[in-house]
User: Fold this.
Amino acid sequence: MDVSFSAFSPKGIADAPASKSAGHRMLILAALSDGESEIRMKTSNEDIDATVRCLQQLGATITRTDSGWSVNPISAPPASAVLDCGESGSTLRFLVPIAAALGVNATFTGHGRLPFRPMDPLKEALKKNGVAVSEGFPLEISGKLQSGNFTLPGNVSSQFFTGLMLALTRTSEKSVVQVTPPVESASYMRLTLETLRRFGVSVDENHDVYAITPTVPKSGVYTVEGDWSNAAALLCLGAVVRGLHKNSAQGDCKVLSVLQAFGAEIHTENDVVQAKLSALHGINFDASDIPDLVPVLAAVAATAKGTTHINSAARLRLKESDRIESTCALINTLGGFAQATDDGIIIHGKTELAGGTVSSFGDHRIVMAAAVLAQNCKAPVIVKDAQAINKSYPTFFETLKSIGGALHVL
Assistant:
């Protein structure tokens, strides 16, 4: 599917989709809980669907409802299972330790760039605590995760920490997880801790050391908040967005402070947010805690006066695309100037870009960045293989149309 984006003036209010990050965590804890839960989550996507599918294979009963998901927890895990994670890194990294804690001999499959996403630190931690893990992909595990002391690097993926902490709710004794600095994506770790505590799980923190007491998570009714990561694209388009918590544990709420640094005017009232984008100028910013925002913020920088330096983003090379290279290719193809560095991007802003035809690189974030760039292009922006958006935000095109977006499916 190819899509054409053109510049438009947003009208009305766009509703933020449900947080993918929070949704993964709540669905998993509900599947490990003491009874039936309702996860109120008004939107879904391919990554969430992958997590639901895998939890069902592990023995949970999960059904879609008008308000989200009904979850009956895992009571009798299977002896073995084949778990298709799609292209979801969260699903793979969260559920490998979960399956190990349940004692399931599991084979994890997937497609796209998923087989190339780093897993070694998590695999080593599991191997030291009772789990046999295969090399290569598909990934096979056997044995049962034991309580103990775990060490994880803080600069590869916070998803290792999340998966392990969720799994340790099901072991027999208290465990300690130490995260070695430098720690990147710390906000995602905070989101995990906040979600665990909402489900009644006790975690003690001492700097980068976390002690978790095994606790059966409490069932109940849980509401997934709005997604700052995906809403960032709408904010970078200049839209008014509803359903965002200003004090969210989601690190991507920092999109507001970065846009403000560019010179945008930020307006908030209750859960409604708008960034007015005019007279923007280049900035330097560290993307270590907000890697998912880089493509859309780079799109903003492409027409901001002066030069923008995006740093500490090396992990983007191992996402659904090499996002440093794909973001640069996107901007340059449309007539801008972006240069890749080892760990980021240098962008020289231009008043206006030409437009043209670009690849999605199979990456949902690149599709959203193309829509943002189209706001300052003379000609339309045509995105090839735009169905990549379904990974995280399948209603993105529908949302754009609801606020007057000029887009056409070709």
In short: The mean pLDDT is 97. The domain at 20-214 is CATH 3.65.10.10 (UDP-n-acetylglucosamine1-carboxyvinyl-transferase; Chain). The radius of gyration is 21 Å.
